[in-house]
Amino acid sequence: MKGLHMVTWILLVVGGLNWGLEVLGWGIGNYIPEGLATLVYALVGISAIVEIFTHKSNCKHCEKKMGA
């Protein structure tokens, strides 16, 4: 599960940075083929869903709060 957590975390960072760059008109969707941009957006969305359901079991800070 650690591998999945790392992949989803990286994709969420990419998605967050993309939204920040989008404000400046530099979103990744403007610079890569449309099909690839759609794939990246889908992977970021799936990553968010995975993290919603698995975050507490993967996060050291949340584990401490749950055990306290």
TrEMBL record:
UniProt keyword annotations, A-Z: Membrane, Transmembrane, Transmembrane helix
Q: Which residues cross the membrane?
A: 7-29, 35-54
Q: What is this protein called?
A: DUF378 domain-containing protein
Give the species: Candidatus Zambryskibacteria bacterium RIFCSPLOWO2_12_FULL_39_16
